[in-house]
Write a structure and sequence with these properties.
Rossmann fold; 2 helices; five-stranded mixed beta sheet; alpha+beta
Length: 94
């Protein structure tokens, strides 16, 4: 799990809480591109990346990226995120 680039502190904290509740790791994105994140995921055996995106400085949605064994990736779905009330509104395949 990671965040969009240059996230607010609230978004980083929300992503870390979500990662902990799902039992997955959190990786600071920094300047990494999606391709670089996909390569890291593939090397560590992960097949999906969750990216917490923000709106107005707060966590807004979680995007799912599927990573294939050849190093390719694709956007696979999105889900709304309310990191403060612990609710998730499902949209798409996430």
């Amino acid at each position: 799990m990671t965040t969009s680039r240059y996230p607010s502190r609230e978004t980083r904290e929300g992503a870390k809480r979500l990662a902990a509740s799902l039992g997955t790791g959190y990786h600071a994105r920094g300047r990494k591109t999606i391709g670089e994140l996909a390569g890291l995921a593939r090397r560590t055996g992960e097949r999906e990346i969750l990216v917490v995106e923000e709106r107005a400085g707060r966590p807004f949605l979680v995007a799912l990226i599927e990573v294939n064994s050849a190093g390719g990736w694709r956007w696979a779905g999105k889900a709304g995120f309310d990191g403060y009330a612990g609710k998730r509104e499902h949209r798409g395949r996430v």
